[in-house]
Amino acid sequence: MHHISIIAILEPFSDIIHVQSFKQQLVMDQAMSNCNGKIWLFWNLDVDCKVLEENEQQITCEIAHNELQTQFTTTFVYAKCKDHLRRPLWDRMLHHANVTTNSPWCAVGDYNVITSMDEKLGGVPYNMRKSLEFIVVIEACGLQDLGFSGQKFTWSNNRGIYNRVWKRLDRALVNDSWLEKMPQTTIIHLPSVGSNHCPLLMEMKARSEDHTRYFKFVNCWADQPNFSDVVQACWERELEGNSMWRFHQKLKRLAGTLSSWSKGEFGDIFINVKEYENKVKIAEKNFIQHNTDENRAALHELNAEYIRFLKLEDSILKQKAQLQWFREGDSNTKYFHSLIRGRRRRLFIHRILKEDGEWLQGDENIAAAAYDHFQQIFTGEDKFISEGPLECLPRMINQENNDKLTARPTLEELKEVVFSMNPNSVAGPDGMNGCFFQKCWQIIKHDLLEVILAFFSGQMIPKYFSHSCIVLLPKVNNPNKLSEF
Predict the structure, then answer these.
(1) 169 and 286 inside one domain
(2) Which residues of 133-158 are buried (b: 16+ CB within 10 A; e: fewer)?
(3) Is residue 277 part of a domain?
(4) Residues 6+ apart with CB under 8 A from 349
(5) Is the CB of residue 105 less than 8 Å from the CB of residue 96?
(6) pTM of the model
(7) Local confidence pLDDT in tens for the 485 residues of the chain
(8) Which residues, in sequence order, are CB contacts of 175 under 8 Å at separation 6+?
(9) CB atoms within 10 A of CB 264
(10) Torsions phi, psi of 300, nearest 5?
(11) 128 shares its domain with 49
(12) DSSP 191
C-alpha cells in the first residue's frame, strides 16, 4: 500500500470549480489549481506546501515533508502541444535552475515532447528537430532524467492497432542537489485507466546505509612526502604464517593504517575544500581593505592550503569516475560530482519483474531473487572428462621446453607484470589497485614474489585471495528484469 502525500492531475476533464469536491474524493487536505485549470494539485497534512509561482504550463512549489529532513522544490508541468508555445515554460525552468542551484529541484509532468527516437513507436518517423529546444533546456538546467520502471511509453493516441502511436511524454527531471540529497527517488509507470496517459508514481524512500564499506586505495596518497615511510613502517612489522596468509594480513593491516593516516593528514577533503574556499574569500576581503604584509602572508598561506585540497579533491573524483580520457589539468569538479552521483543513483534496484510477471519490491526480496538468478548462471554441471582419447595425441613438448614452462617466475618477470597493470584499475574487496602495487613495489616486492612462488609450487589459492565484488550493470536504459543486468 502506497501512502500518497501529493497528487497532481494534468488536464482534468472537469471545470475548475470542482477542485474542492475532488479534494474530498481523494481524501486530501489541501487543493489548488493553476490559472487555466490545466493542473490541479492536492496534498495532505504530511506536507507543508508553499506555492512559489504558477502559470498556464506549470506550478512550482516549495515542499517540506514531515518524514524527510530535506526541503525541496517541485515544478509540476503540463506543457503546450506546439513548439513555440512551450518556450515560456522553458524560460521559467531556466529561471528555477538558477535559483535552486544548491537546493533539490524536480520538474515532473507531461512535457508533450520526447528526447530520442526510442521514445516513440508507430506512426510516421519522428523529426528530432522538434526536440532540440527541450534537450538544450535539460542540459542548460543541469537536469537528469530519473528513469522509470514499468511500461516504456506513457501516452497513446488509442486509435486502431494499425494507426496506434505510443510516446514517452511524461517524465521526472532532477538536479544534482536532488540526486545528492535523495538518490533513491523512483518513478513507476502505472497502468493507464480511463486516460490516454499512464499515471506516474514518484516514491521517495529513506533507505538505511548499512551496506559494507570497503577500503579503497586513493592514488593521490602516493604523492604525499611521508606516504612511503608510513607504508614501510606498517609493512615491515613481523607476522607469522605461510606466505599467502602473511601477505593477506599485511594488506589488511595496511588498509587500516592508511585510513587512519589519511584522516589525520587530510581530514574530510571535500569539507576542507569548502571551508578553505570561505577562508580565502574572507582573507581576500581583509587584504583589499587592509593591504598589509601580515594580511598578504595570511592570504598566501590559505591559498596554498586551498589549492592543495582542491587538487586532492580533483584527483579523488577522477579516480572515482574511472574515465580513461581525462587529461592532466582537467578540473571541472562540478561535472565530476554530477557524474559520480548519477552512477550511484543507477545502482539502486527498487523493483524487479520476475519471469512469471510478478513485481518484487523490498531489498530482501530483490536480493533473494538476484541470488537465485546468478547462482543458477554461475553454477556449472559436474561432468567427468574421459582422459582416454588424450593418450592418442602425440607429445610435442620436449624436456627443454617443459623446463622453461615449469620454471619458477623471477622477480624481473613479476615486476614486468605489475608495471603493465592499469594504475587506475578497479580494486577488489582488499581495496588495493594497480597504483598501489606500482608505487609500493620496492616495499612489497619480496613478499609478493613469495606468494607467486608458493602458487607455482602447488599451494592452493585461499578464498580470501579470490573474493571479488560483483557489480550489476544495466544492459538497457531502464532495466526491469534481472536478465537485463
Answers:
(1) no
(2) ebeebbeebbbbebebbbebbbbbee
(3) yes
(4) 366, 370, 472
(5) yes
(6) 0.62
(7) 467 899 999 988 888 788 888 998 999 999 999 999 999 999 999 899 999 999 999 999 999 988 887 899 999 999 999 999 999 999 999 999 998 878 899 999 999 999 999 999 999 999 999 999 999 999 999 998 988 888 899 999 988 888 899 999 999 999 988 888 887 788 989 988 878 999 999 988 755 555 567 788 888 888 888 999 999 999 999 888 899 999 999 999 999 999 899 888 777 766 766 776 677 777 777 767 777 777 777 777 777 767 766 676 666 666 665 544 444 444 455 545 544 444 445 456 777 888 888 888 778 888 899 999 988 888 877 778 888 888 888 888 889 999 888 899 999 999 999 999 988 877 888 889 899 999 999 999 999 999 999 999 989 988 888 887 777 888 887 788 899 88
(8) 97, 100, 101, 104, 105, 106, 141, 142, 143, 144
(9) 8
(10) -65, -45
(11) yes
(12) P
Residue 232 contacts residue 443 (beta carbons within 8 Å): yes
- 469-476: long-range contacts, CB 8 A cutoff, minimum separation 24: 469/214, 469/428, 469/429, 470/374, 471/347, 472/347, 472/349, 472/370, 474/346
CA dist list (Å): 261 to 220, 234, 396: 13, 11, 56
Within a domain: 114: yes
For the chain, what is the domain count?
2
d(CA 147, CA 343): 13
Q: Is residue 176 part of a domain?
A: yes
Q: Are 194 and 283 found together in one domain?
A: no
Among 277, 310, 337, give the residue marking a domain's end.
337
Contact yes or no for 470/461 (Cβ under 8 A): no
The conformational region for residue 210 under phi > 0 = left, psi -120 to 50 = alpha, else beta, is alpha
The answer on 121 and 18 residing in a single domain is: yes
Give Cα 367 to chain centroid, integer Å: 19
Q: List the domain range (segments joined by +) for residue 111.
A: 6-204
CATH code for the domain in which residue 53 is found = 3.60.10.10
Q: Look at residue 75 and give its three-state secondary structure.
A: strand
Q: Is the dihedral of CA 233, 236, 238, 244 positive or negative?
A: positive
Q: How many CB atoms lie within 10 A of CB 318?
A: 19
